Amino acid sequence: MYPHQAERLSEALDAAQVEGLVATSPENVAYVTGFRSVAGQRGEAPEFGVFTRSGTALVVPAQHAASIAADAIDVDHVVCFGEWRVSVPEGSSPEVRRLQEIRAAAAPGPLVALAAALDRLGVRHGSIGVDESHLTRDAWEGLTAGIAGAKIGPAAAHLAVARRVKGPYEIECMGHALRIAEEALDAVIQTIDRGMTEREAAALFASEVLKRGAWPQRPVVMIGERTGIPASWPTDSALRAGDLVRFDMGCIYKGYCSSVGRTAVLGEPSSSQEALSQAVRAGLEAAIAAVKAGGPAGPIFDAAVEAIRGHGIPNHHTDHCGHGIGLQPHEVPLITFGNRATLELGEVLCIEASHYQVGVMGVGVRNTVLVTTTGARALNRSYHGLVALD
């Protein structure tokens, strides 16, 4: 665990007034332990990451033991449960020794394993904050009953706050993810032409992301009148001269997300297309200019809406103009009307502006910024005005 995460999680312990934090969602488990499992994303079996001032623990199904050992996941304790699907060879390599140790300490079920992890960390009978975000009501009741003797309360909000401020490693990963997304989108922009469909453009973006060592998130490509729909799956709608194309793209690199929104036009834009693009761009720039460490999130929303309305779109309405981004594509804070959440140095925000005219056209742009002492530093490198497709 990097010192930044340890510091933020220690602050979360103080805020929640607990001795330990138990993460349950894949993103929170990754933040606490550095371990990201494929099965965890599918929700096949419970997984827990435990943080205390004395150390960390990872509680997972036994099928993950081999990858934990192979990837040298840096936690103090690993407790597995359930059926082993791999044989443990004889040997003295660090990987084999760790696998043998994990197997020797295996528990019969998830709650027994979690209790054992809490006991190793010395907080088995203390106050525990549990991330309720990934638990059903039955699972929550089973957990609180199964860890008898501990004082358990919800802690998802405290973990979300801990994750808001990014450390150097996180910012580096997010910057790289954003570069990959922009490079892949640029490849689409350089290729797309008359006759290419939304589905083909989305597939091209995904393949370009994979070439660059990241995983694509669901790409949104909207063409022509369909740009007036806020979001939809890509279709076989094909590009024609004079059409707008709206891109909403992103990818994941080492667990961290990126998101970029751009709008393009094939040929010369009409006066109405150009006017709407300029209004939306003004909204984005006004919102970014309003980002201030120590200031509330609400005024960023106000600045975006006022700028768009002031540029000839008096009927503009929206529910938000951005949010945090990190291990998830949408994190707190939500930048919406009246939100008094105070921005902190080191937060990474996805700022967006858009306006949709259903059945006519829509324009959307999105940039990612780092909150600094002087305001907001853009992490994007690509042009965010109306892109001309040759």
Notes on the structure:
By secondary structure, the chain is an alpha+beta fold. The protein has two domains: 161 residues, Creatinase/prolidase N-terminal domain (Creatine Amidinohydrolase, Chain A, domain 1); 222 residues, Creatine Amidinohydrolase (Alpha-Beta Complex). It has twelve helices and 16 strands. α1 runs antiparallel to α8, α9 crosses α10 and α11 packs antiparallel against α12. The longest helix has 24 residues. The mean pLDDT is 95.
Outline the secondary-structure elements.
Layout: H1 3-16, E1 20-23, H2 26-33, H3 38-42, E2 48-52, E3 55-61, H4 65-70, E4 77-81, H5 94-104, H6 110-120, E5 127-130, H7 137-146, E6 151-154, H8 156-164, H9 168-191, H10 198-211, E7 215-216, E8 220-223, E9 244-253, E10 256-266, H11 271-289, H12 298-310, E11 322-324, E12 331-334, E13 348-357, E14 361-372, E15 375-378, E16 387-389
Parallel strand pairs: 1-5, 3-4, 5-6, 10-16
Antiparallel strand pairs: 1-2, 2-3, 7-9, 8-9, 9-10, 11-12, 11-13, 13-14, 14-15
Helix percent band: 25-40%
Number of helices: 12
Q: Biggest β-sheet, characterized?
A: 6 strands, mixed
The CATH architecture of the largest domain is: Alpha-Beta Complex
In N-to-C order, the SSE pattern is HEHHEEHEHHEHEHHHEEEEHHEEEEEE
C-alpha end-to-end distance: 48 Å
CATH topology of the largest domain: Creatine Amidinohydrolase
What is the alpha-carbon Rg in Å?
Answer: 24 Å
Report the CATH superfamily of the largest domain: Creatinase/methionine aminopeptidase superfamily
